[in-house]
Specification:
16% strand, five-stranded mixed sheet, alpha/beta, 387 residues, 14 helices, Purple Acid Phosphatase, chain A, domain 2, Calcineurin-like_PHP, Serine/threonine protein phosphatase, six-stranded mixed sheet, metal ion binding, metal-binding
């Protein structure tokens, strides 16, 4: 089999995506293969441009309907673990009009095959734009991709081409990803979770001081879906306290906590910690039944002894009268570059929601498959830092 991906012409077909995945998988096992020869810059650029144009049309919040007798698979962080993504697609089935997918961010960074994962997800999105949905993670940003591996990965895989131009196209794709999704008016899916009411204090003398005070943990209150729907997607770097990006920053970076209330997320230095009472309030006020989020892996939960483990790939973090909040993580045996005695050897999981019981989640677990052991790993991992 020739390890070169052919152009898809005017449209992406399921057959083209299947052939692309097969070529990319075979190429990962051959160190002598140049990704430039396998997946030419020209073709990758076309894929990125076409998908950016498609994503630009989608709103900040995507509303999803699941067909009768259909289902939707919610996938958490995949972090460049291409071979495990192929395992997941083998388990859940290929995308189709009745087998929907929502990939909930963090497609790249921390794993060596971010290009392959991103290309696969974008290709399925172009093939089934109304059945495959991609929501943004905190790693789909300029700051994270330059700090945690994806920027370096492109430079290693396309050293003889204008790879920085390709990276700029990736940035454009990331900036146009929706922040979250609502499924059948019942299920809210976002990478990090909930967000504060961004409304500043009224103007007048001391306006800036009042606005800062409004963000203090004793003054914060949870936002609502109306505010989220009118918010921006966050630009290239939704990771600060600029008022126009406050909602996007919280949605991508926040975490649940066992204690009541809202508090600054001091561990991350960004976003919020929100308690079960806040989850209950958000569900009740927005007439929702379930929240699905990702963002945390088993390594992060090792340092949060007050929270449930993610060794099994998922956890039910909050349960209340109106519904519950769950975390799902879809990268098994994570993180990829950790030393053997530092690995979590976790299972991964994804969530299945079936029509008509759309708010009744099924958790499907899977384990890691064998990965190529490439000499480039050590060089790629040199600059990796803890999130």
């Amino acid at each position: 089999m020739t390890l070169t991906i052919k152009s898809y012409g005017d449209e992406v077909t399921p057959e083209w995506v299947e052939a692309m995945m097969e070529v990319l998988e075979k190429a990962t096992w051959r160190q002598e293969c140049s990704l430039e020869d396998v997946f030419p810059t020209r073709l990758l650029s076309k894929l990125l441009k076409d998908c950016q144009a498609l994503l630009r049309k989608e709103p900040t919040v995507v509303d999803i309907e699941v067909p009768k007798d259909g289902k939707i698979n919610i996938v958490g962080d995949t972090h460049g673990q291409f071979h495990d993504v192929l395992t997941l697609l083998g388990s859940a089935g290929r995308p189709s009009e009745k087998n929907l997918f929502l990939f909930n961010g963090d497609f790249v960074d921390r794993g060596y095959w971010g290009v392959e994962v991103l290309s696969t997800l974008l290709s399925w999105k172009l093939c089934y734009p109304d059945s495959v949905f991609l929501t943004r993670g905190n790693h789909e940003s300029s700051s994270c991709t330059q700090a945690y591996g994806f920027y370096k990965e492109l430079g290693l895989k396309y050293p003889d081409s204008n790879w920085e131009r390709v990276y700029k196209l990736c940035e454009g794709v990331f900036a146009n990803l929706p922040l979250c999704a609502v499924i059948e008016d019942q299920v809210y899916v976002a990478h990090g979770g909930l967000f504060r009411d961004p409304a500043p204090s009224k103007g007048g003398k001391g306006h800036k001081a009042k606005k800062r005070k409004h963000w203090h943990k004793n003054k914060m209150k949870v936002g609502n879906m109306g505010q989220l729907r009118s918010a921006s997607k966050g630009g290239f770097d939704p990771d600060n306290f600029v008022p126009s990006q406050l909602i996007s920053t919280d949605v991508l970076w926040s975490d649940p906590q066992p204690d009541k209330g809202l508090a600054p997320n001091e561990n991350r230095g960004i976003g919020l910690l929100f308690g079960p009472d806040v989850t209950e309030q958000f569900l009740k006020e927005n007439k929702l039944k379930l929240i699905i989020r990702s963002h945390e892996g088993p390594d992060a939960r090792m340092y949060r002894e007050d929270m449930k483990t993610l060794i099994g790939g998922y956890s039910v973090d909050h349960e209340g009268k109106s519904g519950k909040l769950v975390t799902v993580f879809s990268a098994p045996d994570y993180p990829q570059f950790a030393e053997p005695d530092e690995r979590t050897y976790n299972l991964a999981a994804y969530v299945v929601l079936r029509h008509p019981q759309i708010a009744d989640p099924e958790f499907k677990q899977f384990s890691a498959v064998q990965r190529p052991q490439l000499s480039v790993f050590s060089a790629f991992a040199e600059d990796e830092d803890e999130e």
